[in-house]
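Chain X:
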Amino acid sequence: MAKQKKQPRPKAITPKGFRDYFGTEVTERAEMLQKIAGVYHRYGFDALESSAVETVEALGKFLPDVDRPNEGVFAWQEDDAKEGQDWLALRYDLTAPLARVFAQYRNDLPTPYRRYAMGPVWRNEKPGPGRFRQFYQCDADTVGTSSMAADAEICAMLADCLEEVGIPRGDYVIRVNNRKVLEGVLEAVDLANVSNPNGPPDYYDDMGEWQANILRTIDKFDKVGEQGVRDLLGEGRKDASGAFIDGIGLSDAQSEPVVAFLTSKGVNNAETLQNLSSAVGSSEIGYEGIRELEEIIALLNAQNYQADRIIIDPSVVRGLGYYTGPVYEAELTFEITDDKGRPRQFGSVAGGGRYDDLVRRFTGQEVPATGVSIGVDRLLSALHAKGRMDQTAKGPVVVTVMDRSRMADYQAMVAELRTAGIRAEVYLGNPKNFGNQLKYADKRNSPAAVIQGSDEHDKGIIQIKDLILGAKIAENATYEEWKERPSQFEVPRDQLVAKIREILDGQD
C-alpha cells in the first residue's frame, strides 16, 4: 500500500488586498465611530445594521460592471431548487443596502427615513498602497424628501463630525456643487453640432457617451489646469511623457461654457453663484441647480455655518455622473509629507450628494434621497499625520505572580483594580522566571506592575513598579536623579488602587 502523501501546512499569510488590525488600531477606529455616531444621533438619525450579503440583482447599478455580476465584487452563485439560481455578493457599499431596505420596509418606516450605518464593505478590485479590498464606511442618509434643508443638514453634520473627531476649524473645508449646474453647462456646449473627424454624434444615440467624455475631462482639471482642459476638450495635448492624448473635438466656443464653469469660483459664495449663472447660459436646469445652491447656503448661514467651513466649489466633479443634484466633499486643507518627503495636502476624507433614483429600481417610483459617507481610515491617517493621535496606547496594569499557591490573592487585586475602572490583568504565563513577567509587561506597554511575594504578603504591603517612569529614567537619568525619583516603591496593600490611580494620572 502506497504511503499517503502528507498534506502541506497552510501558509500563515493575509490574503492579497486585505490586512489585519491589532489593539490600538481597532480601539482608535471604534472610538472614532462612536464619536461620529454620537453626532449622527444628535441630528436625529437612527442606526441601521443591514446584511453584509446582498443579491447581485439588488446591488444593480451600484455594481462597477452590471454585465459581469462577479466583477468588482466578491460574488458567488447559489443553486437552490426552489428559488432557482441566484448571485449573491458581499456588499459593495452601504448605499445599495439602504435602497433595498427602504423599498422592503417602506410601509413600516417613517418618511423621511433618516438612518446612519457603519461597517466594512468589500470590493474585488486591484489592491495598491493604502487601497484595500475591505474597508470601513460610515454613512448617513435621508430618504424621502426633496427639501434642500436635508442637503444643508448633511453639510452641517459633516462639519460637526470632523470637529468632533479632532479636526479643528481651519484645517478642513466642505465643498459643495450641483449636478444640475453641470447639466446646464453641458446643454450650453451644444453637442449636437460638434465638429469631429469621426463625424458628429447622433444626438439621441451617442449623447451620453459624449457627455461622459466631457465629464472625464472636467475631472482632470486639478491635474492639468485650465489650458490642459481646453486642449483635451479640443484637439488634444501631450502628456508628461510626451505621448499625445486625443481630444474630444469641441470648438473654442463649445469649450467655453465648460471652462467658465470650472473657473467660476469667486472670492465668496455670492460671486461664485454669479459666475455660475453666466456659465449655464439660458439652461433652465442649470438655473435650477444654482437656486438649490443658493438655498443651501442661506440655510447654512442661518445656522452659522459660514464660508470658513462650507463653500461652493465648481471643481467638485467626482461622481457627478451618479448624483442627481447637490454634491459635497470634505477636504482636509493642511499639508503632510509624502513618502518622498514632498509636501502635499491631505485631500478628501468624505463625500456625498443627492441621488433621487435610489429606490426607483425596486418600486418604479422616484424617491428623493441625499447622504454622505465618511472615510474613517482616511480620517485616522490624517490625525496620525498631524500627530493628534497617541501612537502607543497604554496596556493593562500587570499583577505579577510570585507564588503560584496564592493565585486567589492576585486575582483579588485585579478585581479591585477593575472595579475601580482600571484596566488590569494577572500574568498567566509560566511565573518561574520573574524577568519574563516584566518583559511581558513591557511588551504589553503596561503602565505599572504589581509585585507581592511571600514576605510582602506577610507584612501587608505590595511593591509597585512604574514602568513608564522606569523606562524614562533608564534612558537619560543620572544616578542622583534615579535615587531621587525611584520607579519602584512599596505601599500598604490597602492603598493598591489609590497608588495605581496616582501613577496613571501622573502619566497622562
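Chain Y:
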Amino acid sequence: MPTGVHIRDARKQLFDAAERVLLREGPSALTSRAVTTEAGCAKGVLHRHFADFDGFLAEFVLDRVGLIDGQTAALREAAGTGTVAGNLTAALTALFESVAVAVVGLVGARDELRDRLREAWPAGVPVLTEAAIMIGSYLAAERELGRVAADADVDTLAAMLIGTGHLMFADRTGVPPEAEAVHKMVTAIVTGVARNPLR
C-alpha cells in the first residue's frame, strides 16, 4: 500500500477514535492510550504520525473544524429559501449536536493544546469562531437578498446566536434542547432584522 494512503487512513482512524472517546467520556478521558485502544491499534501508530499527543490533538481539532466547511456551503445555499429562523435553527442544531461542543470543552481543558492551536488559529476559539463566520456569512447572504435588514450587524448577530446556542447545548451529559427551544432562541435574536415570516 502506498505510504501516503496508509498515513491518511491511520490519521482518519485515530481522529475518528478520538471523536468517539471525546463524545462518550469527555475531554479528561482523551489520552493517547484511550485513542489507540479505541482505534484498535498499537500506541506506536499515533507516535509514528504525530510528534506528541498535543500535536495529535491540535490536528484533530483543526480536522474537525474543517468539517464545518460543508455546513457553511449548505447554509449559504439555503439563503433565500425557507425562513431565516428555520435555516438558522437547523444549522445551529446540526452544529451543536456534532462534536463541536466537545471540541470546545477539550480546547478549554488543555493549556498546551491552546498554545499549539494559536500557531494555526491566532484568534478566538476554534469551532466557535468558524461557526460564527458561517452564520455571519449566511446572514450577509440573506441581507443581500433583502430578507435581513440592510443595516443589520450580521457579525454581532452571529456571535449572539453561536454564544447562546453553545450555552443551550453545553451540557454534554444532559438532554439536548428540543428544536422548538432552539427556534425560540433564534427567533428572539433575529426578529428585529428578519424581513420574512419566521415560521
